[in-house]
Amino acid sequence: MTDRNILIYANKVTKPSETFIYFPAFAMQRYTPYYVGSLYGEGFDIPENRKFIANGGWRFGRIKQRVNRLLFGHNGVGHLAEKIRPIKPLLIQAHFGTHAHNVLPLVHKLDIPFIVYYHGFDATMSRTYAESKPHLRNYLQQLPRLHTESTLVLTQSNYLRERVIQDWGYPAEKVRTHYIGIEPSDEAPLPLSQREPMVLFVARLVEKKGARYLLDAMKTVQERYPDVELVMVGSGVLREQLEAQADALKLNVRFLGWQVAHQVADLMKRARIFCVPSVNAKSGDAEGFGMVFLEAQRAGTPVISTQHGGIVESVADGVVGTLVPEKQPAPLADAILDLLDDSAKWERYSQAGYERVQNEFSMQTLVAKLETIYDTVI
User: Fold this and answer.
1) Backbone angles phi, psi at 43, to 5 degrees
2) Residue 321 and residue 331: Cα distance in Å, rounded?
3) How far is CA 192 from CA 16, 128, 167, in A?
4) In DSSP terms, which residues pair with 321 in a beta bridge?
5) Cα torsion at 194, 195, 196, 200 (round to 10°)?
6) HEC secondary structure over 274-295
7) What letter would DSSP give residue 120?
8) CA distances from 355 to 67, 115, 144, 359 (A)
9) What's the maximum distance between 2 C-alpha atoms anywhere in the chain?
């Protein structure tokens, strides 16, 4: 590592579900990341001297954060400037557009370049929804400042880039797509003969993930293949409703709740098909890219999903999987049955997905590109 220090901002530092923030930072070779945020969790082990937290831990920190917002209009990270100044950061990268305005006071005090990174909901939510939420109304008020004061805006997909420009008013010349990679696997994917008769779903149990349509589709699938089990990994507000739906349909299904990363990876290796049929939620929330689809491809597991949002970039339709219209169980069932029936297609998709992650979405390659972006910004 070098003394070319940068700041990575997240509202809650080391939130376990936000691996897409931390894994690329951990993989940097030419820059040393320090972490700044309003609150601190316990998701990843970061040395104390590499993090700056404005309000403390999650339970009591939220109270202090609320006070800072009421008094100063931001969550307090601007007060960290004097503690941060000795490391001489070269830039600050703020994750999630809806949180980025909180670091504007810090940007001004340190006088450094400022990158905003949009990931999904922050770009796809409707303006009506944003206006209905107090914390998002504050974001809307600060949005013109983000337009002018950000040095560069990154988006996790081309789909999000278009949304950020068209819906949120950023100048096109300031917005650039940068994919987030994953660590390639050293293991060859398991062949079809060693796979279990399993359709795997891994996602939060919320409207956007389209689980209700997968349950309906599996009714048709299991009429022909009763031994093909649906395994649902994830938790969320719709769990009871989805379990009731599965019971009514008399499905062969297991709801496992949330699983740690190595458990999910093991399921992906063993599954025959990976399926998360995402949809547009009432709030406007849509899939910005879908890192989980890359994780399935890394395991050589063919993907079935929807022609939706950034999924068309994370899943090469007809190459590593099949995309169908969203909110339609019948074509979803047909796509699953097609892969269960056609072993040659399954093998093609499996190998193509594994190679695609190795060649196009390698963490090391994409982090090197990100560091080159930093060079340009600085």
Assistant:
1) -75, -40
2) 14
3) 32, 47, 44
4) 303, 317
5) 160
6) EECCCCCCCCCCCCCCCHHHHH
7) S
8) 50, 31, 42, 6
9) 66
Identify the helix (H) or strand (E) that includes residue 116. Answer: strand 114-118
Work out the number of other CB atoms within 10 angstroms of the CB of residue 229: 19
Strand-pair category, 114-118 with 92-95: parallel
Integer Rg of the chain from CA: 22
Cβ atoms of 147 and 165 within 8 Å: the answer is: no
What's the CA gap between 59 and 331, in Å, rounded? Answer: 45
Return the closest-CA partner of residue 102 out of 49, 56, 66, 63.
Answer: 66
Amino acid occupying residue 40: Y
- Cα gap 107→100, rounded to integer Å: 11
* Residue-level pLDDT, tens digit, the chain, 378 residues: 457 999 999 988 888 778 899 999 999 999 999 999 988 877 778 888 999 988 776 566 666 666 666 666 666 788 899 999 999 999 999 999 999 999 999 999 999 999 999 999 999 999 999 999 988 998 999 999 999 999 999 999 999 999 999 999 999 999 999 999 999 988 999 999 999 999 999 999 999 999 999 999 999 999 999 999 999 999 999 999 999 999 999 999 999 999 988 999 999 999 999 999 999 999 999 999 999 999 999 999 999 999 999 999 999 999 999 999 999 999 999 999 999 999 999 999 999 999 999 999 999 999 999 999 999 999
Query: Are 126 and 283 in contact, with CB atoms under 8 Å apart?
Result: yes
- For the whole model, what pTM was predicted? 0.91
Of 3, 349, 286, the C-alpha closest to 129 is 286
